Amino acid sequence: xxxxxxxxxxxxxxxxxxxxxxxxxxxxxxxxxxxxxxxxxxxxxxxxxxxxxxxxxxxxxxxxxxxxxxxxxxxxxxxxxxxxxxxxxxxxxxxxxxxxxxxxxxxxxxxxxxxxxxxxxxxxxxxxxxxxxxxxxxxxxxxxxxxxxxxxxxxxxxxxxxxxxxxxxxxxxxxxxxxxxxxxxxxxxxxxxxxxxxxxxxxxxxxxxxxxxxxxxxxxxxxxxxxxxxxxxxxxxxxxxxxxxxxxxxxxxxxxxxxxxxxxxxxxxxxxxxxxxxxxxxxxxxxxxxxxxxxxxxxxxxxxxxxxxxxxxxxxxxxxxxxxxxxxxxxxxxxxxxxxxxxxxxxxxxxxxxxxxxxxxxxxxxxxxxxxxxxxxxxxxxxxxxxxxxxxxxxxxxxxxxxxxxxxxxxxxxxxxxxxxxxxxxxxxxxxxxxxxxxxxxxxxxxxxxxxxxxxxxxxxxxxxxxxxxxxxxxxxxxxxxxxxxxxxxxxxxxxxxxxxxxxxxxxxxxxxxxxxxxxxxxxxxxxxxxxxxxxxxxxxxxxxxxxxxxxxxxxxxxxxxxxxxxxxxxxxxxxxxxxxxxxxxxxxxxxxxxxxxxxxxxxxxxxxxxxxxxxxxxxxxxxxxxxxxxxxxxxxxxxxxxxxxxxxxxxxxxxxxxxxxxxxxxxxxxxxxxxxxxxxxxxxxxxxxxxxxxxxxxxxxxxxxxxxxxxxxxxxxxxxxxxxxxxxxxxxxxxxxxxxxxxxxxxxxxxxxxxxxxxxxxxxxxxxxxxxxxxxxxxxxxxxxxxxxxxxxxxxxxxxxxxxxxxxxxxxxxxxxxxxxxx
Length: 824
Ligand code: 26W
Fold this sequence. Notes:
- There is one protein chain.
- This protein has 33 helices and 25 strands.
- The protein is an alpha/beta fold.
- Helix 7 packs antiparallel against helix 8.
- The protein is globular.
- The mean pLDDT is about 95.
């Protein structure tokens, strides 16, 4: 039993004290007592006890930043996929063991307690989780930073399966309150919308523009403290909730329009009601544009209010104090909004304003998929944000007439490509072009992706501004993704390389000395086995499927997308099943294929793939003939807290996107750090992972980016593979039978169609054979248990680069130029 904590901020806290604090909060804060408290009350009381230290750190940090008048980065993101906070905050404050002991004395199991917390699922996937890892790193590294986003009432939908089909249910993460957020009514903002622009002349005869909005929305900030590791700095994630503006509302109410005022409320509250569940497809919906503007405008006003408290009307230091990072183009409307505030509201001339803007903003690109590149119709923009459209036109005019004309005189083709406005049947505002033009740096998220951003997406911009486009390879926080989620492995690492690794992941490199040590191999693989046993319980609980922890646990967890190719995994599973049926002695180590994935509610084929995996699972899992050699499990409602249970138990990590399509991937990093061996394509960060861990410790297959381009250029025909490979043909034909859907032939046919008549846009069939061979390599490798253990250990040892602290340091050095301030 440990009675002290490892960190200065909580150094003298004993389990006894923490226990008293929990009991005190149970009574005084939550109005119950030890005899009748529910698990939820215990969780609330523990959170309150914990918050005493959080708030202390928050005050110290905010005071330190204020007193030093620090430059800060403001991370604008429509998504923050935070997951649960209790365990993470306890770990980062060094209080986990203290709390565990305190709760134990009170008869409460800490694991049961943390399971009380709903995930804060305010994001879809990689982009939102990256934002969450980044704010953890910023606080850990004592960097002045604020996360800005939306306080969604409903996060990403809860996924259920009904007869194998995905059903979406609303997520209500804060229905009964959330102990980690603080409402700040003193910092409310008002945001205009709609209306028209009036052109007037001022006393000097200059043209001035006046926007007459016909709606005003109130933005109410909720602050979530972000506790850095060791608890010294506590930064803020500020999330805006929309409400009807009081003054607007009272007018209507007094005029007797109770129902009208009620409708105003409902409409205003709709803005922050729900997270859009699409990733990678831009639907162009009015409410989404309003969400983007609402939170960007609230955040900029908040930043300006804080700036003016110190600098009043001296704008010359603004861009020295304020960096704004745009997480994809979703908050790009912040660029014309800052122009509007400076030019219209603060009467600063255009050129000065534009210089400030360009020095303030930077933009991270997360995708090259054309359907994900945001475009808004000019018509919609004009309706919702008429003044912003005018400003965009002016930005565009000056850019094309001055900068593009100077570089490429008279070249209208290049002008058409670089214009913020896309001409055509319906004129569109291109948010990517706006973001590049209005930023000082633009980065991709892995080497290969950033190279493609330069060569394929924005080549002319790269020619115009050779310094602007850059790379920052993604990373993940080892505090959540090793320390908190894999306590057994963490304890082994502590014993082997010391306890400093959570803030210096390169220290894991020393584990390589133990990679061939038989005793260490056994301990490492025993921990993996124990984690697998834990996951078998979760699987049983969620699906009622029995799996054997001595089988290979092969895991694919990520959003469901054709480009991520869960269906390639499925084709291979069906091929294995077929081999086993043809030859029950087919030589393979037993394997459990485990999936976790949500499909966007409107993405029919993605939902069909989920259904197909579930149907194949039903059949395979109950087929006595294959003697348990193959199991398929689709865990419902994949989310951060489930990932934390799956990742420590993975033997194999499936990273099988079509080369050139996955910008980076971050799950690939989490799995490899926890000792899983990657089977993957040369795509995104897989390439850099392979470089770091070495080619003997990953299994690479498939076409490269250049080969994919060449195959497509030559005119790819999936039919060649269908007729050229018996196994492919047999498996695809299987989809049309009722073998997996008894009595209902054709229920799975859409997958076959997409891969043949649909042209197989993501080259599943072209990569199938190479993938199947790679899977045989995985099998052979696993049978060599010493070789496998060595590779698994070296994966953990050599993943230091993928700490999000390293990513943040790259942003600091190349883009933000921030200085650290340790809270006093
Ligand atoms: C307009 C709709 C929309 C919504 C979300 C388009 C695109 C997105 C995101 C960019 C999707 C996303 O999460 N992208 C992922 O970002 C991760 C973090 O950089 C990368 O690791 C993933 O490869 C990328 O798919």
